[in-house]
Design goal:
- The protein is an alpha+beta fold.
- It folds into two domains: 71 residues, Roll (SH3 type barrels); 38 residues, no CATH class.
- It is built from three helices and five strands.
- Strands 4-3-2-1-5 form a five-stranded antiparallel β-sheet, with helices on one face.
Length: 140
């Protein structure tokens, strides 16, 4: 009787290990894809003081800084205000964005130059087209 029970238990354990019993800490496919997406984004941004980022973790804490190192499992960010370095795992990260994603000064300068050019063109071209009010169509 003991031998038969022992044999059944042993065969059950062997079957369980043969079919790949996964532990509770395994990531789902969606989590793995999100982690891989964040990893590629960080590696694409690069490393150095020009690689400024805004990092949001899964526990909703946020911090800004630049990427000082990027490994296969984690990356390091030097915080902007304090200068301290934090090593963050890709799986603990919710999102990574470039810092200062608003409109840059260069873009505003270009838009201002275009607006000024349009105003000057309107002031110069309108009198040439309207020639004293004789035309009734167009910009007059």
């Amino acid at each position: 009787m003991f031998r038969r029970t022992f044999t059944i238990m042993l065969s059950g354990l062997l079957l369980l290990s043969a079919f790949g019993f996964q532990g509770a800490g395994a990531q789902s496919l969606v989590d793995q894809q999100a982690t891989e997406k964040i990893r590629t984004k960080v590696l694409k941004m690069g490393v150095g003081t020009n690689a400024r980022v805004q990092v949001k973790l899964i526990d909703n804490t946020q911090f800004n800084g630049y990427i000082s190192a990027a490994d296969q499992d984690s990356f390091s960010v030097v915080e902007r205000g304090t200068g301290s370095s934090k090593t963050v795992s890709y799986s603990d990260t919710q999102s990574v964005k470039k810092a200062g994603g608003g409109v840059s000064a260069k873009t505003l300068l270009i838009l201002g130059a275009v607006a000024a050019g349009a105003a000057v063109t309107w002031v110069v071209v309108k009198p040439a087209l309207c020639d004293g009010g004789a035309q009734t169509r167009g910009p007059c």
